[in-house]
Amino acid sequence: MRRLLIALLLSFMIPALVRAQQLPSFCTQVTPDQLKGTTVPYSARTAFDHSQYCEGQLTSATAAHPVEIVSFKQETGSVFSFSPGATASLSWCRIPGMEQSAHLSLRAIKPAIYALDAQPVDKFEWSSDVIGKVHPDYSSIAALAVGAASVNGKAYSVLLPVRRGPPVASDGYVFMVHSLSPVHLTQATIEPVSGAAQAESVPIAAPTSPAPHFLIVRLPFGDRAKGIYRISFGGDPTVGEPSTAPIYIVHGACQ
Fold first, then answer.
1. How far is CA 146 from CA 12, 103, 106, 118, 196, in A?
2. What global pTM score does this model have?
């Protein structure tokens, strides 16, 4: 009888404990339903530097806007896959006036839905066991490093170009755009947030599609001055082609 009572008590307590489990504030706050059927559930983990991060699988992706930029990487020109049993490393460069930490977010764009959230300063190293097993292909992972910066007293939420390995000077970036319906992107609008330079519209090469509803856009930045730029992608406005919501990126911080 005593064992039966304990078993009944645990049957009520365990679901309540699962529901009450709190992840770090920068992580996706998931429900047990979002983890059902996953082999490596999204959960809190400890990195090599003893900081907390969250990593694992989700059964569903976060709802997206109709057309939005979901990834910003530094162009490397090489194909890479994560392998289990190693150290995974991603980095970026900050500019003066930025807050210390950035929010690093990784999301797979193909099944299974791999997810990672961390809050490092300018580099994050972690065990590649999960990503190497669940989703090793770096090219089909959307990566964002979001920081806060101030220019002339105005605050901006900025994207830092994510790079695999040590950050180096590069004038090329790889963006990933998610769209709920087909979209035809032909141009980029680039505008510095400081200085006398005006916004300019530049043509872009035909985007490639690594997965349904996703487009890869490569954008060389040439000899533009280092700083923060407002970026958006769009098509022909005369025929009603939609544009992405503008984002602010940091350029040239590694130079």
1. 40, 5, 11, 11, 26
2. 0.86
